[in-house]
# Entry
Amino acid sequence: MTVGIRDVARAAGVSTATVSRALGKGPVSEALRAQVDAAVRATGYRPNLSARRLRSQTTQTVGLIVADIRNPFFTGVSRAVEDAAYGAGMRVILCNTDEDTARETLYLRLMEEERVSGVIFAPTRATAEALGPGDLPFPTVFIDRAGPPGLHDSVVLDNAGASAALVDHLVAQGYSRIGGLFGSTSSTARERRDGYAAAMARHGLDARVRAVLPNAEAAEAGCLSWLAEPERPDALVLSNGQILMGAFRAARGLSLRVPTDLALAGFDNEPWTDLVDPGLTVVAQPVAEIGAQAMRLLFERIADPDQPVRKVTLSGRPIFRGSTGA
Amino acid sequence: MTVGIRDVARAAGVSTATVSRALGKGPVSEALRAQVDAAVRATGYRPNLSARRLRSQTTQTVGLIVADIRNPFFTGVSRAVEDAAYGAGMRVILCNTDEDTARETLYLRLMEEERVSGVIFAPTRATAEALGPGDLPFPTVFIDRAGPPGLHDSVVLDNAGASAALVDHLVAQGYSRIGGLFGSTSSTARERRDGYAAAMARHGLDARVRAVLPNAEAAEAGCLSWLAEPERPDALVLSNGQILMGAFRAARGLSLRVPTDLALAGFDNEPWTDLVDPGLTVVAQPVAEIGAQAMRLLFERIADPDQPVRKVTLSGRPIFRGSTGA
DNA sequence: CTGAAAGCGCTTACAG
DNA sequence: CTGAAAGCGCTTACAG
# Structure
């Protein structure tokens, strides 16, 4: 009932081999190609991709495993990855782990069973550290989170530098009791924390660090208790857009005036950050560039599996707004 | 070099048929199953899904085609769909059309080539109206946008009712020059427009309707020119979260005070809508419920392709905030 | 419960 | 340029 390549061949009066060549890039005479095209249209033939993949031993597929698809950072990266993939004639399988190591394992296994050409992966810190170079049976590029040095290709932000820029700015604005709230699951959050701590030390200030799960709800709860303490910070550095949102909610819940009572500075230039009052100071990440570079590294790794490991570090762009008195 | 089912069979001292049965639900003795499990672990075997799909003639895959993955409405729906799918042992292929009919055609074709079990689809109005019941070679459930009555299963919001509730509320708050800005590509936007117009007529007020592409940039530009006109509205109904954001930006750009100079009421209870000042009155959509119902309809349609067409209509929940003087 | 054999729908050497 | 034939890695009647 469903039409196969044999039906097309019969309708065109040629062999299945010729149909296959006409559909692909094989050498076929103009006359036969026209017959095949007509037969394809007449029969409504659609090639079976499972059969094609099995036979040709190439899936033309890349996997993209992100930590949180609701996070606009990953939405932006995934669009760039998809654009690059479709431009190269590949499709992408998108998976979302919710920062859960069990789901990471599950999806890594799925990628293997799908026989993907390669994977772009934003791993939790736990998984990044557990994974040796030989543990992944396909070329892999880490994004947003690099893992231990030298093991995997990666595209990341200069996290320490970006954190330091925020601290320098806050100090210049006159703040000194500057706290830092960072995600607990990613190496990126850790780098941002370390960059914050180094900058604080450079200014001769005490680092005040806390960790939360990187979502708005957890961040709000963490800030509500922290900001109720007598020794509360007069400024906060927040390690991503979700945590920044939670902090902003907490400040509002406690009726703290921003930036007078509390300054806020974070990551990710999400659309809402300049919609609130005051606008929020953030480091904008080059999401499209991150996705595009990741695909480039992946393709080059697929083409030459034995080349040395590469790490691309991109700079963030600080945007100073009212939340830090700018 | 890559290990196949024959290698596992050899290692376990059984036939490939037994390995296949042990991995699936076939009848196998406990002893042999244990041998197979050990051999799978020893060899690191991963089944080839392309081969499995080709041979078993079932892909265990559903397609999800959304109009804009950056829109939190679709992100929310897709999470619900994925949860339901994985719970049923199926995977999902997610595609994003950007409201572009050419990409809709492309992805519909991809779904066919992937031999998906079924598709959940948020079509543009143009595509929904062009598609007869026989034009889709797989079971399909429309979400967010129903298309012409009686042709396809669908899960939608009571759009007209929700629009009317916003108009009634604005009238009760004392507004009368109430304009409506609606997306130009979806049947949903059209229903919201019609519900708005009917409610305005019921109140004896003139409807003032404009259309834009459903993204924040286009909406902001449209509002900037509209609100600069002498006969400008004193309140706006906006047909989705992106358009609402554009309108809010325009009001700020023109230094209009909300709700004194201009009231705003829209759709989609996105996290930022209660973060801005004043908070924005919106109709919250039951995104998780929409996704779950769509999967339910799809599974039932797959199980019984000849059952009558069904349409599930869900109610929105109005949330009144400061942007309408509430 | 188990194995030998056929075959899912394609692509690709191999001959011509 | 074209066709006949083999085979990708599985699953599933068919016998036993």
